[in-house]
Amino acid sequence: MGIVETKNLVFEYIRRDEEGNVEGITRAVDQVDIDVKQGEFVAVLGHNGSGKSTLAKHINAILYPTEGTVWVDGKDTAKEENLWDVRQKAGMVFQNPDNQIIGQVVEEDVGFGPENLGVPTEEIWQRVEESLRAVGMYEFRRHSPNKLSGGQKQRVSIAGVIAMHPKCIVLDEPTAMLDPNGRREVIRAARALNDVEGITIILITHYMEEIIHANKVFVMDKGKVAMEGTPREIFSRVEELKELRLDVPQVTLLAHELKKSGLKLPDGILTFEELSAALGYGKKK
Amino acid sequence: MSIILDHVNHIYEAGTAMEYAALKDICLTIPEGQFIGLIGHTGSGKSTLVQHLNGLIAPTSGSVYYNGADIHDTDYNKKELRSRVGLVFQYPEHQLFEIDVFSDVCFGPKNLGLDKKEVELRAYAALKQVGLEDEYFYQSPFDLSGGQKRRVAIAGVLAMKPEVLILDEPTAGLDPKGRDEILDQIARLREETGMTVILVSHSMEDVAKYVDRIIVMNKGQVKFDGRPREVFRHYKELEEIGLAAPQVTYIMQTLKKNGLDVDTDITTIEEAKNAILKALARQRREPET
Question: Mean pLDDT in runs of 10 for chain A (285 residues)?
């Protein structure tokens, strides 16, 4: 069994009018089966309202399934006795950095999680140091979070999650509010955690360039998994993605356009060097 | 119909230990009808700059002129200025509050003191301009999708019939299609009405695709100001200040480095496609010796 697994997962919102009468039911997640292995880097794509954030919120038991089951590290998230374990194993980072930082000083903020887990003081300090180093924010440990840039704040949020020693981190559009530099910093930190520490990463994003290194991509539509595959497989299906209100990286799109103009190119080109080689310039892999 | 910033400085909390110069000696002319992209990393002064354009904050020194009049003269009508220079903040959907979409869009023109008929005509036209279907007009704005809410919020500003429309990251958090829809609509609107549009954005690809002029802010100063291809030619300097060129510019640099003789001043996919096809054809005609 993987680190995160769902079986026949269904989640329904009940819509009510002002008097509290039931107006209808919206099925936000509809029969989803996913299986994420320990150490994988998984990306989830999907248009606004496709159900990806609702799915993500099941992974650390912010929401419980209406039907079906979610297991995190083998534990059923719907069982109350598993709640602490599930939330410690699977951490979550949200879109707006200002909504998730509570400490007055960076290191205090990062220590909040392990403190609540009842970790001994000395070990808390150790974890704070390790976590801040892992995201490249150690030199800012004594700073006020208010004075940091968006990308730096997001990295502090990630450090706060790492300090709880999770096996898996879910990042829900962590770069949506950041400038190009902030985006690079956050994605680099996530990839390093995956490569070096072996932490499973589940990244939800609207930026297609951010996921070309993922092991696996799920594309959501109307609460279901509409496509599943490697980035290369997914990004080979340019027209289908466009129908799902998505996009491909610019390099993939350019290759697709050149192909339509009659050049012989493979599908699903992901990097600049690949395109260059396919055009006959530069080294083939 | 131009905006002129003349030696504008803005210092936050002047005279305290927290003193911070957000704008330093800014001189800019924004002529009528331009589509401008304003870029810069977080904290570079973009938001402070746009808040000067409709008089929300005043310069510490220097002047702002709208159509030749100093907007901080004591007898200048700032209320009218704000209806002419419309500002759409980041995540504008957080400012929706009325019971239905139509009433929300009516709020702005109603406060201009227009008669009811005119208010409703303007609200209707604005909602059509942003491409919202009639069926949503009497729904609560809170029941709409993220992209729809944002369009309602933009319509609220359009209903004031602004001559200048400033949008602060109008596409943050939207899916790729939603992003293209909003920007396409803004581009079309600008063509139809001739209004000036200033787009604050973190997406270099979007800026490159839509605008005629890019202003790059860094540390409270204008670092670059020019057409997209001129500005993105400085991609190395842009990287140093936390920005980047569009991905496609880097693709062209890679091809050039690997020996394909292409034009590298390229900022959109369409341009790149044509440049590559041209270079390949040329190289076929003149095989390397």
Answer: 93 82 88 95 93 93 95 94 92 87 91 92 94 91 88 91 93 89 90 93 94 95 95 95 94 95 92 94 69
Determine the Cα–Cα distance for residues A90 and B48; give it in Å rounded to an integer. Answer: 39
Distance CA B190, CA B165 (A): 9
Identify all chain A residues contacting B172, using CB atoms and an 8 Å cutoff.
176-177
Residue A149's closest chain B neighbor by CA?
B42
Q: What's the order of all strands across the beta sheet hosting B213-218?
A: B85-88, B164-168, B196-200, B35-39, B213-218, B221-226
Q: How many CA atoms lie within 13 A of B210 on its CB side?
A: 28
Average the pLDDT over B15-25 and give the result: 89
Instruction: Give the span between the Cα atoms of A164 and B155, in whole angstroms.
Output: 45
**Which of B100, B144, B181, B202 best probes binding to A when mutated, by most A CB atoms within 10 angstroms?**
B202
Maximum distance among all Cα pairs of chain B, rounded to whole angstroms: 77
Q: Could you tell me which of B89, B48, B60, B70 has the C-alpha nearest to residue B221?
A: B48
Angle between helices A106-116 and A150-162 in degrees, nearest 10:
30
B176/A263 touch (CB, cutoff 8 Å), yes or no? no
Q: Which residues make beta-bridge pairs with A170? A: A92, A202
| Contact across the interface for B248 and A250, Cβ inside 8 Å | yes
Q: Which of A173, A182, A209 sits opposite B42 (nearest CB)?
A: A182
pTM: 0.88
Backbone angles phi, psi at A142, to 5 degrees: -95, 5
Domain ranges of chain B: 246-289
Dihedral angle computed from the Cα positions of residues A208, A213, A216 and A219, in that order, rounded to the nearest 10 degrees: 0
Could you confirm whether domain A4-230 is CATH 3.40.50.300?
A: yes
B104 contacts B148 by C-beta, under 8 angstroms:
no
pLDDT confidence of residue A96: 84
Pairing of the two strands A22-36 and A75-76: unpaired
ipTM for the predicted complex: 0.84
Which residues does residue A7 pair with via DSSP β-bridges, in sequence order? A69
**Closest chain B residue by Cα to residue A16:** B143
Nearest to A137 by CA among A179, A88, A192, A99: A192
State which amino acid sits at residue A23.
Answer: E
Query: DSSP state, A194?
Result: I
What confidence tens digit (pLDDT) does each residue in B201-230 have? Answer: 999 999 999 999 999 999 999 999 999 999
Determine the pLDDT at residue B288: 56
Q: Are B140 and B87 in contact (CB under 8 A)?
A: no
